[in-house]
Amino acid sequence: MNHDPFSWGRPSDETYGAYNNEIAHAPSFPKMNTQQPIVTGTSVISMKYNNGVIIAADNLGSYGSLLRFTDIERLIPVGKNTIVGISGDISDMQHIEHLLEEIETENQYDNSFADNEESLQPSYVFEYLANVMYSRRSKMNPLWNALIVAGVEDNKPFLRYVNLLGVTYSSPTLATGFGAHLAVPLLRRVIDREEDIAKTDLQTAKTTILEAMKVLYYRDARSSRKFSLAIIDNDQGLIFEKDLQVEKMAWNFAKDIRGYGTQKV
Amino acid sequence: MNGIQVDMNRLKKGEVSLGTSIMAVTFKDGVILGADSRTTTGAYIANRVTDKLTRIHDKVWCCRSGSAADTQAVADIVQYYLDLYTTQYGTPSTKTAASVFKTLCYENKDNLTAGIIVAGFDDDTKKGEVYSVPLGGSIHKQKYAIAGSGSTFIYGYCDKNFKEDMTKDETIHFIKHSLSQAIKWDGSSGGVIRMVILTESGVERLIFYPDEYENL
Amino acid sequence: MTSIGTGYDLSNSVFSPDGRNFQVEYAVKAVENGATSIGIKCDDGVVFAVEKIVTSKLLVPKRNVKIQGIDRHIGCVYSGLIPDGRHFVNRGREEASNFKKLYSNAIPIPAFADRIGQYVQAHTLYNSVRPFGVTAIFGGIDENGPHLYMLEPSGTYWGYKGAATGKGRQTAKAELEKVIDQNSEGFSARDAVKQAAKIIYMAHEDNKEKDFELEISWCSKSETNGLHKFVEGELFDEAVEYAKKEIAGDEDSDSDNAMSSDDEDAGPDVATTTETPATEGNADRDGDIEIE
């Protein structure tokens, strides 16, 4: 008798041949995890300036073409000098919010300096998120988002992007989604290269971002007029402005437009 | 991956669906849930007197839309979780109930078609709360929520007519008119209008028949 | 003790014929030799304090922190085997984190006590593990206000207004009773911090030959916004100054505090008036604590 309890009640090897784990553990269908975004947030746009960074995102959660939720905050503060701007699937965004809250809590564990010299820095937050995004895409189960981490670290502005593929890059001006096509060219009119950062003050940067948000509202069919804006300034720290609105739009020229070419009346 | 295409978000062939009009509205004394009563398999009405307002806890209820099987399964699991929660830690908040719904819907999003509104009355704060948990498993706290296929027709009506802190009668009026329009324009919604009122004084059920709501 | 040599104390999962689990009782012994820890509940929060015996002059002062945070609203301090306490806290953090993930709310402290209590109790059941060599005092604030608990190696836990464990617990408990009685009308977190400092200094009196450091943390609605934080800076210095002054004044005035000094191991002392009945079982003649 086979005294190993593991084999009790199983077909005996003598009669049926060796137990084939390969077959036994095979699922009836391949596990497929790639999904599709359902409730989505559109662009996040951001730029550096001589003493920090600015980042902005609107407050809309779209459900296909239905503008379903109008009060979604997509700029997530982490610690005192980091903002994570999230576009893409909102359920995954909420999952990322939870992860960020978790790393903040974990950073507090046994750390008397968690509020000061050992607080989470933008680069730590970014590196963590980039790892999460890459590992999830490698499991064929991506978090359907594009993120921008903005902040000030060692008195210098920090700005970096990561998306659902785990691709990362930096630039003095950054935007996700539609913003990468529409806003970045506008932002680059002010900051085209690294050296331009030093020449750009907060006021100029803020005006540029507001102008870009306006153009996005003009041309992005999944955008809303309401948006949030955050500034992380090396001296003033985090300035979070909520319930902002796209202002001073130009619509008046519409009255002079008649027909679509030759028509005069 | 291109060889095999599975789109779990589309209903499997022959599946029973709650192509629905549902809503939940907070008001002065608590919260009211409302729903139509039509369940369909394709164009055939499988059940014309469905109850889509489901008890999760004494004063936490939900409105179900999407797959009937999925939402029943999810609601049963949440009910079990909250029963356990009650014996261990006491009465759960509406937020906690909604969070359990969210966890299930988010972590199984590939296999579920469930759009749920969670509404509850908190006996401590004396306030009604509404949470929307749409398809992907995100969670949204709202003053009022509408969902289901019929809801798309009443976004404008609801946005214009909802007021905060309405009376019970005003709220019933609001829901009755909203769902009446949803049912009128959505082929997948119909039957009777059911309501559940959650206030400090308890749970109350209302029902309105087509003759009453069709020609408001 | 008659049972010595019978072998009933060798395994966790075996009762002695008179219905005792000796491994648990030995764990209690480990706690009784540990440095004193206390917790006080005040109007809108809790305060923790611990005596840190300086075991080596090479240790960096103010580092090697002993009090730990479990969640942002829960603090914990323990006496006994420090590594056991570390593991205990890690498990506590997992419980708190899991709760928050599922229910979207910070874990209520009674719920936390229940979960961690079950975990500690499970370590008295199996042959493959030994019980925790710590008695932990933990608490904080949740939506129902402040909570303070003390959890013993057996898995027993009770809620307290003030709790003490470790070597100086007798003195500390006597003083806690006094302090809590005096402040029954209202007890601010700041006052509780000062009293906590005093109590640790008093409890250390019996162990005077050894140097020690004081560590205090708190969790108060008004002072720390419900978060568990260390008491530092001015308030800490103020508390220490107050404690030292009180000790100096006490030395010649009342002698009844010295009652429970030197012989901490002696059982009969346990049954004196200073004992809160719920805290520990009654002691028998041989000095063995009976676990309820």
TrEMBL record, chain A:
Biological processes annotated in GO: proteasomal ubiquitin-independent protein catabolic process; proteasome assembly; proteasome-mediated ubiquitin-dependent protein catabolic process
Coiled-coil region(s): none
InterPro entries the record matches: Ntn_hydrolases_N, Proteasome_beta4, Proteasome_bsu_CS, Proteasome_sua/b, Proteasome_suB-type
Record's keyword terms, sorted: Cytoplasm, Nucleus, Proteasome
Residues in the signal sequence: none
Subcellular location, record wording: Cytoplasm; Nucleus
Family annotation (PROSITE patterns): PROTEASOME_BETA_1, PROTEASOME_BETA_2
Primary residence: cytoplasm
Statement: the UniProt record of this protein carries the keyword Transferase: no
Cellular component aspect of the GO annotation: nucleus; proteasome core complex, beta-subunit complex; proteasome storage granule
Similarity comment text for this entry: Belongs to the peptidase T1B family.
Described purpose of this protein according to its UniProt entry: Non-catalytic component of the proteasome.
Name the UniProt record assigns to this protein: Proteasome subunit beta
Species name: Naumovozyma castellii
TrEMBL record, chain B:
Enzyme class name: hydrolase
Protein EC: 3.4.25.1
Intracellular or extracellular location(s): Nucleus
SUPFAM superfamilies given in the database record: N-terminal nucleophile aminohydrolases (Ntn hydrolases)
Keyword terms, alphabetized: Cytoplasm, Hydrolase, Nucleus, Protease, Proteasome, Threonine protease, Zymogen
Protein name per its UniProtKB record: proteasome endopeptidase complex
GO biological process: proteasomal ubiquitin-independent protein catabolic process; proteasome-mediated ubiquitin-dependent protein catabolic process
Gene Ontology cellular-component terms listed: nucleus; proteasome core complex, beta-subunit complex; proteasome storage granule
Subunit structure: The 26S proteasome consists of a 20S proteasome core and two 19S regulatory subunits. The 20S proteasome core is composed of 28 subunits that are arranged in four stacked rings, resulting in a barrel-shaped structure. The two end rings are each formed by seven alpha subunits, and the two central rings are each formed by seven beta subunits. The catalytic chamber with the active sites is on the inside of the barrel.
PROSITE patterns cross-referenced by the UniProt entry: PROTEASOME_BETA_1 (PS00854), PROTEASOME_BETA_2 (PS51476)
Organism ancestry: Eukaryota, Fungi, Dikarya, Ascomycota, Saccharomycotina
Active site, UniProt feature: 20 (nucleophile)
GO MF assignments: threonine-type endopeptidase activity
Reactions catalysed, as given in the entry: Cleavage of peptide bonds with very broad specificity
From TrEMBL, chain C:
Ranges that cross the membrane: none
PROSITE patterns: PROTEASOME_ALPHA_1 (PS00388), PROTEASOME_ALPHA_2 (PS51475)
Known function: The proteasome degrades poly-ubiquitinated proteins in the cytoplasm and in the nucleus. It is essential for the regulated turnover of proteins and for the removal of misfolded proteins. The proteasome is a multicatalytic proteinase complex that is characterized by its ability to cleave peptides with Arg, Phe, Tyr, Leu, and Glu adjacent to the leaving group at neutral or slightly basic pH. It has an ATP-dependent proteolytic activity.
Compositional bias annotation for Basic and acidic residues: 282-292
Protein name: Proteasome alpha-type subunits domain-containing protein
Residue stretches of biased makeup (Acidic residues): 249-267
Domain Proteasome alpha-type subunits stretches: 8-30
A GO cellular-component term linked to this record: proteasome core complex, alpha-subunit complex
Family: Belongs to the peptidase T1A family.
Region annotation (Disordered) ranges: 246-292
Stored InterPro entries: Ntn_hydrolases_N, Proteasome_alpha, Proteasome_alpha-type, Proteasome_asu_N, Proteasome_sua/b
Keywords: Proteasome
Single GO MF descriptor: mRNA binding
GO terms for biological process, alphabetical: proteasomal ubiquitin-independent protein catabolic process; proteasome-mediated ubiquitin-dependent protein catabolic process
Pfam families: Proteasome, Proteasome_A_N
Alphabetical list of CDD domains matching this protein: proteasome_alpha_type_3
Lineage: superkingdom: Eukaryota
Entries under PANTHER family matching the protein: PROTEASOME SUBUNIT ALPHA/BETA
